[in-house]
Amino acid sequence: MSNDGLANALLQACQRRGIMLATAESCTGGMIIAALTDIAGSSAVVDRGFVTYSNEAKMEMLGVSAATLEAHGAVSRETALEMAEGALVHSRAGLTLAVTGVAGPGGGSAEKPVGLVWFGVALAGRPVVAEHRLFAGNGRAFIRSETVRHALELGLHALGEDQALAP
């Protein structure tokens, strides 16, 4: 399914459940919220998108702790979890999607290579979850596009809409 199809399926799933959606984005710079708001009628379920590219923005807008950033870095499980939780706390959303990663072409390291992205998903009333993916070898645009795709898939999964992901 295309990113447009995934975005539409996620909006419909949120609408059926009567919940709002928000994003907390770093490496995608707002691409996830853009994919959602490109669809007419998205205002029925999209609350807001936090673009928190800098560590300062992560702390100020989402409440990510300085201690977390210092101990684990911006691209980490811990930061993704705090971003997703912070977006839930600082919005009217019942579902939040957070991403933080190394889109490249520079900025990678042995521990955090270009293409490493951490995802956080918060659904009100459930524990926040995080996972990572490595989208390597195809450049910045590919990494960012695949990050959008996977974030949308995670949102559908969180809402129990896995059948929407079937080919």
Automatic annotation (TrEMBL):
InterPro entries named in the record: CinA-like_C, CinA_C
Signal sequence segment: none
Name of one Pfam family that matches: CinA
Domain of life: Bacteria
Domain CinA C-terminal residue range list: 5-154
Family matches, as NCBIfam families: PncC_domain
Protein name, UniProt field: CinA family protein
Lineage: Bacteria, Pseudomonadati, Pseudomonadota, Alphaproteobacteria, Hyphomicrobiales
